[in-house]
Amino acid sequence: MHDRPLSKRLSASLLVLVAASCVAGCAHLAVSPVWGEYADLPDRSEVIAGQLVIHADFPLAGQHRLVRDLETLRSDVSQELGLPVSDEPVHLYLFQNPARYDAFAAKHFPNFPVRRAFFVETDTTLSVFAPWQDRIAEDLRHETTHGYVHAVVPTVPLWLDEGIAEYFELPRGDQGAHRDHIAHLSGRLLEGTLRIDMAALESLHSAGELSQDHYAEGWCWVHWLLHTTPARRKLLEEYLADLRRDGQTAPLSVRLTRLEGSNAACAASVRAHIESLAAPRS
Ligand SMILES: [Zn+2]
Prior knowledge:
It is a single chain. It is built from eleven helices and seven strands. With 282 residues, the protein is of the alpha/beta class. It folds into two domains: 149 residues, 3-Layer(aba) Sandwich (Glutaredoxin), CATH 3.40.30; 105 residues, no CATH class. A seven-stranded mixed beta sheet has the order 2-1-6-7-5-4-3, sandwiched between helices. A hairpin with a 2-residue loop joins strand 1 and strand 2. It is globular, with a radius of gyration of 18 Å. Bound molecules: zinc ion. Zinc ion (ZN) binds next to strand 1, helix 4 and helix 5.
């Protein structure tokens, strides 16, 4: 069990990080660093599930499949990324319906675009807000992944943060194979507009800059690193471990070029990976 490093907590205190899932993906915004005990937070039932503290404004059974699913996600994220687990609480605030959630978001995050769910990090708390609706399982897996990762690596770059969350938002049996992203990327490949450039992703620092192409590419890099060779998986694990110790560590793109020899060879391998994922299963 590990708490988040103190130095990272202090640096994170400068702003509140908000991540939100929506049709096009997730958004990270800096908002006023004011966080309090809002009177309209869901508080009818509370379920403790490992690191998660789930507050709902409706009766929620501790043995609900969704709760168990999110508990399992904690060990999946830890094992897949070689990260320690933390005992820092991640608070999940679940609203009975979208109307209640929308009213809460409009009142407390008035400048924040309407999203299906969102994640907020402050210097002392990790919180997810979401309404109960058809895609609640996917949304909670996405946002809770942000919580699990930020509990141990608060400085994860925006593109990688989203790539990892997109990877883990899928049901466990899918093993990270995101059909929507595969279709999008293979479409780009066919029309000749696919861009594979990790260094370009690393230059993105605000949600407003992230397009569907960026989310799909971020997911694709994570899938390629985890599912092609042991050396690539190790590279990602070592990068995250180094980031945990030093937020200014050498970028992943620089490390990757060292491993693969050239950016062109690396991009060609990623393109081939997309083609193999998109190929009809025999
Ligand atoms: Zn996200």
